[in-house]
Amino acid sequence: MRKLLLWAALLSGATPSAWAAEPDQPSPRILTLRPVGARELRIEFNYNFRDTIVPPFEKEPAFEGKEIARGLIPTVPPTPLVRNITDRELYLKPDHGRDFTAGPLATYKSQCDDGAHVYFQNLRVSSERESLAIPYTVDLYTYQHGCGGWFMVRSGWTGSLDLDGRSWRLTIVDNLDGRIDAADRLFLEDRRPADGMSVSHECPVPQTLFLGGHCFRLDCAYKAVETGVALEAALTEIQLPMGELKMEANGCRSLSLCEERRILFLDKPEGTIAVPAGRYRVDNCVLNSEPDQQLGLTFARYDREISVQPGQATFLRLGLPLRNTVAVTRDRNRLHLTYQLVGAGGEVYRDLDVRNRPFFRIYKGPLRIAGGTFGFG
Questions:
Q1: 351: domain range?
Q2: How many domains is the chain partitioned into structurally?
Q3: What are the pLDDT digits (tens) for 66-121?
Q4: Which of 180, 251, 260, 341 has the CB geometry, 3.0–4.6 Å to 220, for a possible disulfide?
Q5: Structural domain includes residue 192
Q6: Residue of 37 and 294 predicted with greater confidence
Q7: Residue at a domain's end among 155, 189, 207
Q8: Which pTM does this prediction carry?
Q9: Which among 5, 25, 32, 26 is positioned nearest to 16, based on CA atoms?
């Protein structure tokens, strides 16, 4: 019977969806994510070491008297580059070829030089997957000599998810390899918060996403559209064994918990919340910002594991009040002071507001003998 139905669909001109639901399974929500300038994803590279240095390519222009370095942008296939250090230029082969004397060649001029780094902006590269050319925009930061530094992927794919009267923006940044997995980044933003203050979380792209009390399997694939290429995200609601979190999270605006490739986003985490059972670490805790805070407090880490058992309740305390702590160690006549801003559950935060940096003073009796401020965090 299924063969007859499929044959009838083909005769009628219908195209079966790549994310078609199995029998007795809910149909997935399909989001088409469009290209967008996105938050950056950093990729380190170093072609200066003996084991990774890139030799001359098959054919290159004459570079007599020029200082030259070579590298590969980690697209699929890799995109060769030649850096003309003397003339402050960068040459790319957008077709992934190794002949720099024929075919397309893109030339970029360095944008700045801070005395240590050279910067090339808006490099256009692509990866090839199943006949699709997936485009990316990349910035390159390298040292003044050689070929070592980092790429910043500045392009991504974004779309909106409407869920129970709430609207969420999902943005995915691919690490240039043309497939979506844990090496890529997901940015999730509450688009229309009730108080007008946006909340955003960042994490590796998960396989399982718990959002607004719903648990979804997330599958992503690139596809051709009229305007070029889009990223299609399929969210299929699934059922998992559940436990409970008894939350005491004073001042906590939202919370994310992570277990391998499962991420839980908890909006306004307070009271008793049903969540999928698992062993989690705190990935992010967003505190309410004070009106005069420019950057606010940023979650740094929480060293404890949260174990949620099926049908059982687990207590979790985070958030306010915060306390200033200083650990002091001594090495002969040298004192080392380590400052931390610690939350109610022992989690650590950073405060990047330079106007209110924590400071210390050291006295010997009534005499002040030293003082200063701590760095960020």
A1: 323-373
A2: 2
A3: 999 999 999 999 999 999 999 999 999 999 999 999 999 999 999 877 778 899 99
A4: 180
A5: no
A6: 37
A7: 155
A8: 0.84
A9: 5
